[in-house]
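Encode chain A's predicted structure.
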Amino acid sequence: GDGTFRKAPELWRTWSPQSGRLLHPIQLQLAMHALALTKCGGRCVYSTCSMNPLEDEAVIAALLHAAGGAAELVDVSEELPALVRRPGLLTWHVPEPAAGADA
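Encoded structure for chain A:
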């Protein structure tokens, strides 16, 4: 995703808004697998180096929806006060699929 641009700046040449759209299902699959491996009452932490809400907030929203109430978003601000954080987005733009691209 776009989080690797610092290490691989040549990726800017091939990046497009579709990139996040294509990576969302992969990120969601990884997060769902991690959640399935989490013990009942345990904690699953999802973190990316991406700046794209389709790889971040949209994945968490889809994960919570798919969990059907079996998982919840927990604020850990008091447990990790030194962790630098920003509030997540509540809405984001989902680009239309490119012509000929899989939806």
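The chain has a mean pLDDT of 88.
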